[in-house]
Amino acid sequence: ERMCKLGILEDVFVAAFNGEAFPPIPRWVQWRHVSEGLSHCEICLNLDRRWFADDLKPMLPQHPDCHCMVEPLPYERVMKEAAAECRYSKFDPYLFDPEETYKHKKGDMFKDWGYSIKDSEWLRKEIERQGLEKYIAGQYALGELNKDGQRTNIRVKLPRKDKEGTVSFKTGWMVYPHGVIKLVTPYGGK
Q: DSSP 3-state assignment of 77?
């Protein structure tokens, strides 16, 4: 697990070795819901204690009379404590959908790339690894924000199993407190 968190550090070491400029290290913040009065915004409550790269955080303020704020978060803490979670069921049965329950046909693309339901565990681990690495590096895009929370999109790259080359696509995640992201969908678009 430790290796998956070395992405940006590895980039720094490689740049130093090659005499190149270091890649930028993102500044991180923790969202804090500040209660002022009797009413609470569901969206702001769902952002409380979520971690974001400072330049990739939700809009602040969220609404008139919003008292939320962000606090600086040491990057070392993000590297040490951030985590990605990805349930096996997001691949089997959801992605590959052997019973045709979901009718989304997302598994068809993976099959075209040479993957099958037998690859579900490897896909789960690899997408989880890349998701965490890119989240820590601040390489994500904000998705929909609503009363259920903040979604993010993280681009992953997989080797094709059917021929030479790779495929790249977006995965969908939800941000939870203390730097935890959880996979919502293994395929969120090209």
A: helix
